[in-house]
Amino acid sequence: MRRRKRPRCVMDRFLSNAVNRIDAKGRVSVPAHFRTVLQKRGYSELYALRCLDQAAMDVGGLDLLDRYEQRIAQEDPFLQTADDMSFFYHGDGTFLKLDQDGRVTLTDFIREHTGITTEVAFVGRGSFFQIWEPARLAAYGAAARARLLHLRQGTKPGERPE
Amino acid sequence: MRRRKRPRCVMDRFLSNAVNRIDAKGRVSVPAHFRTVLQKRGYSELYALRCLDQAAMDVGGLDLLDRYEQRIAQEDPFLQTADDMSFFYHGDGTFLKLDQDGRVTLTDFIREHTGITTEVAFVGRGSFFQIWEPARLAAYGAAARARLLHLRQGTKPGERPE
DNA sequence: CCTGTTCCCGTTGACGCCCATGATGCCCCA
DNA sequence: TGGGGCATCATGGGCGTCAACGGGAACAGG
Fold first, then answer.
1. What is the pLDDT of residues A106-123, one digit of tens each?
2. Residue A79, pLDDT above cutoff 70
3. Option in B5, B125, B161 nearest A87 (CB)
4. How many angstroms separate the Cα of B23 from the Cα of each of B29, B117, B121, B139?
5. Rounded to an integer, what distance in angstroms lies between the CA atom of residue A162 and that of residue B76?
6. Mean pLDDT over each residue of chain A, to the nearest integer
7. In the beta sheet, which residues pair with residue B21?
8. Degrees to nearest 5, angle at CA A106 with A133 and B121
9. Which residue of B has its CA nearest to A58?
10. Residue (of B10, B5, B37, B140) closest to A94 by Cα position
11. Which residues in chain A are closer than 8 Å to B144, comparing Cβ atoms?
């Protein structure tokens, strides 16, 4: 039985990863698969939020921000925490505009936080995706795998640590 | 029925940040993105309030005052605190006039409070924006992120605002 | 007269739009 | 089954537009 050309089943989530090069103008192509997801979700504008604890940026549509704003609304608007959150989510992000060829230009702001210089690693994270400096991503991935492995080896029956 | 995508436009909130230079006449360009938001919100005049606890100015339309008056209303009007707040917010504001190139001239009052000399950092805060001296902004941002990170690590698992 | 403000101009550098190219993978058909 | 043709995609670059910026000139007020 021949499988005809059909839409893939997981087109509505950001999955997998890719590394693309930055050209002389500072542009980099967003992976085609991610672009189709963006289109499917109706994202016309990309918003990039700086990760709190990693040298990466979270990238998604503006509804990424809506979720955070709902979170901020839970706080007392006159306390420090609400102010910090607003400061971080509203002020510490940056717009990424897709040009017609599906490329974005990276700002110095992003380069500083991520350490990106010549290449960009795109990592799908489900409802959003991340951009990394490839070497840092590799290091982070290795550390994450090590933690998981350690966790699994430590959870043998009767030998659970901690 | 679930409405998946809100037609919320990018242009109705102050987001992201930018740094612009002050020219010899003391003028500085308000970022183009912020100007479109101002126009969309129908702000004909800008009002700048000095932040109570930061070396920054809150800038927005006159409804910015509403925000602070709500704050004052929470205090007991009999006490000194309410009087202080009223004095501070009502008396320590400045009007900023946009010239036809979208620039404002910074007053000495603003320079004094913010420490701004040659460059101005604009920071979106949703319904208004702030102006900072860039180095001070960086320092404050680092502190704010540290507080948030600490807060996040302190929250129970599954409570991460994601 | 001097200082500060407002309008208007030109410059420049960054960014968006467009087209070209090469690489890769898929499909169809011989 | 293999090869030609087509589609897709990452990448490079030319070029026009616009925002940021600098400065001249026309005011106004003190």
1. 999 999 999 999 999 999
2. yes
3. B125
4. 9, 10, 14, 25
5. 51
6. 88
7. B119
8. 115
9. B162
10. B10
11. 83-84, 87-88
Percent of chain A with pLDDT over 90: 73
Q: What is the DSSP string of B127-155?
A: SSEEEE-HHHHHHHHHHHHHHHHHHHHHS
Pairing of strands B57-60, B129-132: antiparallel
pTM above 0.85, yes or no: yes
pLDDT at residue B8, as a whole number: 52
Encode A126-158: b = buried (16+ Cβ within 10 Å), e = exposed: ebbbbbbbbebbeeeeeeeeeeeeeeeeeeeee
Chain centre distance of CA B70 = 17
Helix axis angle, B63-73 relative to B80-91, nearest 10°?
170
Measured from the Cβ of residue B140, the count of other Cβ atoms closer than 10 Å reads: 18
pLDDT of residue B162: 43
Q: Work out the mean pLDDT of chain B and round it to a whole number.
A: 85
Give the pLDDT confidence of A30-70 residue by residue, as tens digits.
Answer: 999 999 999 998 887 899 999 999 999 999 998 889 899 99
Please state whether A102 falls in left (phi above 0), alpha (psi between -120 and 50) or beta.
Answer: left
Q: Do B128 and B60 touch, CB atoms closer than 8 A?
A: yes
CA B32 – CA B10 distance, rounded (Å): 13
Among A6-10, A42-46, A76-80, B36-40, which stretch is predicted with the lowest mean pLDDT? A6-10
In sequence order, the β-bridge partners of residue B28 are: B22, B104
Nearest to B144 by CA among A76, A85, A79, A113: A85
Chain A, 122 to 161: residues with Cβ < 8 Å from chain B are: none
C1'-nearest nucleotide to the CA of A105: C15
Cβ distance A129 to A34 under 8 Å? yes
Which value, to the nearest 10 degrees, does the dihedral of the CA atoms of residues A24, A28, A29, A34 take? 180
With beta carbons under 8 A apart, name residues in chain A contacting B14.
Answer: 90
* Gyration radius of chain A's alpha carbons: 19
